[in-house]
Structure formats: structure tokens, C-alpha cells
Amino acid sequence: MQDFGGSAVGAPQEVVRPTSAGEVASTLLRADGRTPVVPRGRGHSTDGRSLTGGISIDMRGLATVHEVRDAGVSVDAGATWREVLEATLPHGLTPPVLTDYLDLTVGGTLSAGGVGGTSHVHGTQAGNVAELEVVTRDGRIARCSPSLDRRLFDAVRGGSGRHGIITRAVLRLVPAPRDVLVCTVPCQDATALLRVQTTAPADHLSGQAKPSETGWRYEAKAVLFDGKEPPRGLGPSEVETATYREFADRMTPDVDELIALGEWRRPHPWAIAFLPGRVAAGFIESTLAAMEPGDIGLSGVVLVKALKGTGDTGTPGLANVADPVQFGLLRTASPGCPSPAAMASANERFHERARAAGGVPYPAPVGGQSGQTG
Known about the structure:
The chain is 25% helix and 26% strand. The chain has helices spanning 21-31, 81-88, 106-112, 119-122, 150-156, 190-199, 244-248, 252-261, 277-289, 340-356, and strands at residues 14-16, 37-40, 55-58, 65-69, 72-76, 93-94, 129-135, 141-144, 165-172, 174-175, 179-187, 204-212, 215-225, 238-243, 270-275, 301-306, 325-330, 360-361. Strand 12 and strand 13 form a beta hairpin.
């Protein structure tokens, strides 16, 4: 068994596919702390955290999206964000924060934190949860919320499974836009990119650094929900329109192409960190100055996302930094590029530098017997 990272292998002694929180609890009680128990959603971890030599819990057995109401929707942890959106959009509603790739499970991203293009407005996905059902490591089934067992509620959101396994969540919903206006903004450097991300009056913001013949070029995407024209002074090089559903699912054509090219199945040694805003631009530029395009692979991606206005990541269980900027080297070990082992070593050095600069890895390192991933 492998995960999306493709560099680690796990051979579980047992696979359990529960259909209730009670079955998850029974599995943990039976393991009694002696056998590792690891929940697995879509196996999209990139460092082997969804793999185990012990008991693997297939969370896709818990994948029901329950009744949708204006205030929120109750969702089993094994449901994907695509399945949630398919249930809420007919009601004109959407989760405030979606992952770029919709085929991740709710429990996995809430356990990691969950960052999306609207996080500069709404914080993390884990910060938009009204209530959770959690099976704690001692086999207890607990409900928690801001007013009920707040300590557990704060610990499991962004806690990487250290304090229990999320089995159900009540997600906040907001009105969904009908259409979006996508503005592509070329940026001279990382400083300019972060300036756009912290000043542009946009509903959804993202950024990338892309290799070119003259080095790395920076590009921001500023998206307006139900917008008619770009904000004054933004200066986009390209403006596109799409329905909200099309925009939310924008990665599907790219994923289909990567599957056809064989890149989707290659190892993906990813490294992501939250950096303090005051050092982020310099850190990003110095990191990329020391890299060749092949160091991220033929289909690798460099992501930059400033969480403007939150002051932190918005999730107590996730280590926070001041004015966080998410910087990700989403490497693919393509043919002719560095090996997965070499990329993993480069990622270790990346995280060491990030910690020295006051940053923190994302997702948080897993400790203990259970780690929950998408």
C-alpha cells in the first residue's frame, strides 16, 4: 500500500472499514495502544502518514453527507469535499473554504488544518467547524464544539490525529456565488506577489512561482465572486469568467492530463511551511534562487499563499506564526529529475531553514498511534 507521496510503503496487518463511530472506537479499544491504528481517507498524504504496519482504518466507509441546512451541514469524516459541494450547491450554499483539489476527505483536511484560496478571509477549513464527533485515543466517542469540551475541539482541529480520530463534522456554510472573475496578475518578485495577496480586494487569492528562461517568474490569481470587472489598479494580464462550480473543480482537467502523462503516479515528495510574513518574501526568493526547475519535477508546483488579516492560521491545534504565508514546494520525481530520496533530503533542509526563520511545517508532524489524513 502507498500514499500519494509514493515514497513510503505500508503493509497493514489488518484493514478495517467502519460504518459508525462505534466501530472506530471498538478498533481502538481492541488495539489497546499496543498496535498502531492509522485512519486513511483517499491516501493523499505525501510522507507516509496514512500508512501503517498495524491497523489501517478505511474512513471511506463513513462518507455520508447528511441534511443540508442554511446554518451548516453534518458530514461524515470520510466524505470528500467534492461530495460535500455536490450536496450543498443545489441549496445555493458552499463551505467557506475549499481545498484546490476537491477529492480529499473532510476528516483528513480538518485534521491537517485545511488551507484554501479564501483562507485570507475565512481562515482554515478547521476554523469553520461548528461541532465535531471524535473518537479519542482511549476509545471514547465524544462530541465537542466551542461550547462543549472546547479543549478537545481545539486540540483535534489541525492536530494531525494526535488526540483522536474525527468521525463527523458540522461544517459552516455560506451563500455560494453564481460566477467568478479570475484575474491573472504578473508580479516582478515575491514581494510584489505578497503585496497583491495582502492588498487586492479579492474573494479568492493564490500565487505561484513558475520556471522561465530568465529564472523564476511570479504570478498571482485574484478571483472575484460575482464580479463584473477587475479591481482598479490590479493590472491583470488575463481575465476569465467561469461558473463557481467550474472554478471550484478547476483542477480536474489538470489531474486528468497528469494521469495521462503518468506524472500523477510518480512520487511526490512535498514540502510546505507557514512562514512569518516579515521574512516570507526573502525566504521564498532565496530558496528559489538556489533551485533549478528540475528540482521540483516536470509537473511540480511552487505555491505561495498569504493569509491576510487572520493574524494566525485560525486553528488552535495548528502551530501558528505571525501574519502567516504558506510556501509549498510540491515536487514530482519526474524522469530525468532528482530522485525521490534526493528530493526528500532537500525537503528536510527546507524545513530546517523554515524553522530557523520562525516558520512551522505544514501539516504538523504526527506523533502517537493515529494520524488522520485526506
